Amino acid sequence: MSQLRVRATADQVRETARAIRRRNIQIVRSAGLGHIGGDLSAADILATLYLAVLNVDPQRPDDPERDRYIQSKGHASGVLYTTLAAAGFIPDELLDSYMAEGSPLNGHPDRNKVPGVETNTGPLGHGLPVAVGTAIAARLDGSARRTYVLCGDGELQEGSNWEAIMAAGHRGLDNLTAIVDRNYLQQGARTEDTNGLDPLDQKFEAFGWAVRTIDGNDVDALLEAFDAVPFSAGRPSAIIAHTVKGRGVSFIEDRVEWHHKVPSAEQVAAALEELA
Question: Which domains are delineated in the chain?
């Protein structure tokens, strides 16, 4: 199976990430709902994956040999849908129905309704265990397909994730890559004030993973990291991607209240100007 397209350049990925952020802000405003801070922190990661990494084809979303991308932080559905539209899986105009009654674009993604969504997520701590399962399935099939899973950092306070991390290390799943959107904020507070995660790299390593820590809002750093997976043969790869919640919009960046705050019309205009 061919890749989605000829691999995008770093500049093309950056421009697409800006476009994803602009569209994301518009659909959250229109819906009156969403998780805009976590959407914006992850935009560079998703743009990089879909334009330059994943072996997927929007014309054949169920191809058995496709790579699997699982968004464990399913509440950040806005950035997933805007990325799927940018990658050609869904029409851009469908984004205007985000969270509307009867729309397939629910607040949490549904694989039965949206092409390109691999599994239903939203309840935290589910996506990474499913990703471990898809990586095991690929190994049993003798397939070269890879699994990538994006987790929120606050989400790693869920015990099911650590069971999955332990199982992946035990099984040596070097076809699995976990990306942690490490923006240090969760609903209502900072992660380290709620239930500290650091030293996160050492915790993954203790469970048998190979780990790299990067700037998750730097497309060049993301491309370099994804090009290097698996980081070590016989070990799953973890990318701890340090990001800024609300990245790209100054009045949203690193502000806990923007976990699921909706911008006013004036704030939308200001944000779009910053992202022009």
Answer: 10-274 (3.40.50.970)
